[in-house]
């Protein structure tokens, strides 16, 4: 019986230790975005067509290709980026695209906004792993078009850290730079799960709250496990002495 209790305690302890922070969506309309170019001008105004702010407006393309729900560079290249307000460990990145566009791209991250590291290279495609279904910018909205990178899919390196994330259209793209929505999940560096309200970079926007919840009682579980191990050791000594 004691062995079973010890085993159960150790399982709970391992779960609490290695899952001390849960990944939640860290992108929201309050974060600061920027771009090198916007089709009709970058005005930092979501009411402007093809502005960079549209990548966080909560419209994944379900209203069609209106221009008020997507960023468009206005040429065969360009980049758009987001400032999370503080550094996070990234767990999942979702790109929502205009149906049947390829747009070869590079995803890069930075802790300073000036020095960048590439973490993914790809192109838009039919993507069954998108969280939102049937929202591609077509009349029928029957196809899920974009790209997903996640640690759970083994195409995003574990412990990828970033305050800034940039989507860049690679040279030779057959289409102008397009991005309807960017959704990023992550957790805090210290793993405590406390909420973070960091201040954004350009534009002075305020970063969103991650709403991470810490796992309680880790030290209590350690004490319980050690106590049970002591009881088992004493019982073994008593049996040997007998």
Give a brief rundown of this model:
With 242 residues, the protein is an alpha+beta fold. It has 2 helices and 11 strands. Strands 1, 2, 4, 5, 6, 7, 8, 9 and 11 form a 9-stranded antiparallel beta sheet that branches. A two-stranded antiparallel ribbon has the order 3-10.
SSE topology:
Blueprint: H1 2-18, E1 24-25, E2 32-35, E3 71-72, E4 79-96, E5 105-110, E6 117-122, E7 125-126, E8 145-150, E9 160-169, E10 178-179, E11 181-188, H2 218-241
Helix pairs in contact: 1-2
Number of helices: 2
CATH class of the largest domain: Mainly Beta
Helix content: 10-25%
CATH homology-level superfamily of the largest domain: Galactose-binding domain-like
CATH topology of the largest domain: Jelly Rolls
Distance between the termini: 20 Å
Question: How many domain units?
Answer: 2
Largest sheet: 9 strands, antiparallel
Indicate the radius of gyration in whole angstroms: 23 Å
Unreliable spans are 1-20, 192-222
Report the count of strand segments: 11
- The CATH architecture classification of the largest domain is Sandwich
* SS class: alpha+beta
Strand content: 25-35%
Shape: globular
Instruction: Round the mean pLDDT to the nearest integer and report it.
Output: 76
Order of helices and strands: HEEEEEEEEEEEH
Structure overview:
- There is one protein chain.
- The protein has 242 residues and is of the alpha+beta class.
- The two termini are 20 Å apart.
- It is built from 2 helices and 11 strands.
- It folds into 2 domains: 1-19 and 215-242, no CATH class; 22-204, Galactose-binding domain-like (Jelly Rolls), CATH 2.60.120.260.
- It is 17% helix and 27% strand.
- The strands form 2 sheets. Strands 1, 2, 4, 5, 6, 7, 8, 9 and 11 form a 9-stranded antiparallel β-sheet that branches. It has a two-stranded antiparallel sheet with strand order 3-10.
């Amino acid at each position: 019986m004691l062995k079973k209790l010890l085993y159960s305690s150790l399982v709970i302890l391992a779960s609490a230790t290695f899952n001390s922070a849960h990944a939640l969506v860290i992108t929201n309309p309050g974060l600061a975005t920027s771009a090198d170019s916007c089709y009709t001008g970058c005005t930092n105004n979501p009411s402007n067509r093809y502005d960079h702010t549209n990548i966080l407006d909560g419209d994944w393309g379900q209203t069609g290709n209106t221009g008020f729900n997507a960023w468009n560079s206005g040429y065969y290249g360009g980049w758009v980026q987001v400032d999370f307000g503080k550094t996070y460990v990234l767990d999942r990145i979702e790109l929502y695209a205009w149906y049947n566009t390829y747009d070869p791209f590079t995803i890069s991250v930075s802790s300073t906004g000036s020095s960048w590291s590439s973490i993914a290279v790809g192109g838009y495609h039919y993507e069954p792993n998108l969280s939102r279904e049937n929202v591609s910018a077509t009349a029928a909205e029957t196809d899920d078009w974009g790209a997903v990178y996640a640690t759970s899919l083994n195409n995003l390196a574990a412990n990828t850290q970033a305050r800034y994330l940039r989507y860049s259209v690679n040279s030779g793209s057959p289409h102008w730079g397009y991005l309807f929505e960017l959704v990023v999940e992550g957790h805090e560096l210290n793993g405590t799960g406390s909420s973070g309200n960091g201040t954004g970079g350009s534009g002075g926007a305020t970063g969103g709250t991650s709403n991470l919840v810490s796992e309680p009682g880790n030290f209590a579980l350690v004490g319980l496990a050690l106590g049970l191990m002591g009881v088992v050791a004493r019982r073994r000594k008593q049996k040997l002495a007998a």
